[in-house]
């Protein structure tokens, strides 16, 4: 079906969509599928002090910075959220995200509950958070082992950490039990569609309605 060329467009502010889950629950698979099917959302690019891995590109996979530059950015308030993970620092630069939101682009975050808490403190009005749960602990362990990426002790650590991560489910706007990837992707897509229609995000709606009323 061909749509009319003169359909009205209403400008809107973008949103920050966060997906969090314990490792192995399927968050990364859902994230990749969402990015493949939705042209209006971009993955957040974090800054990190760790060295690039083979194949990683600066500005695409991460912004690779020195410890000194990272600490300067923290002091200057340039991060929406940041954390130290083992011996490296990670953070979300504020300027790039704000520019995307102002232009009507949505930004997707793959971060844990601690990063989500910081986003909620710094930009709650722009935040939409989804926590992804596995259907059972047995299935979570099966998925972790099925990846064949981690040693036995690493799988055990991830399983032990999962309980603490899942205890924060009440802090999220939406809860999703990932029993089937296609259904989970459809559910996240529905959430995204609904959140885009919220009145406060449709910045151009006032002018549009004013124009409609003037035509009456």
Structure description:
This protein is an alpha/beta fold. It has one domain: Rossmann fold. It is 43% helix and 19% strand. The strands form two sheets. Strands 2-7-1-8-9 form a five-stranded parallel sheet, with helices on both faces. A hairpin with a 2-residue loop joins strand 5 (79-85) and strand 6. Helix 1 packs across helix 7 and helix 5 (137-146) packs antiparallel against helix 6. The radius of gyration is 19 Å and the shape is globular.
The CATH homologous superfamily name equals P-loop containing nucleotide triphosphate hydrolases
How many strand elements? 9
Number of domains: 1
Count of DSSP-assigned helices: 8
- Classify the beta-strand content into a percent band: 15-25%
Gap between N and C termini, in Å? 29 Å
- Class computed from helices, strands and strand pairing: alpha/beta
CATH architecture: 3-Layer(aba) Sandwich
Indicate the radius of gyration in whole angstroms. 19 Å
Briefly, what is this?
By secondary structure, this protein is an alpha/beta fold.
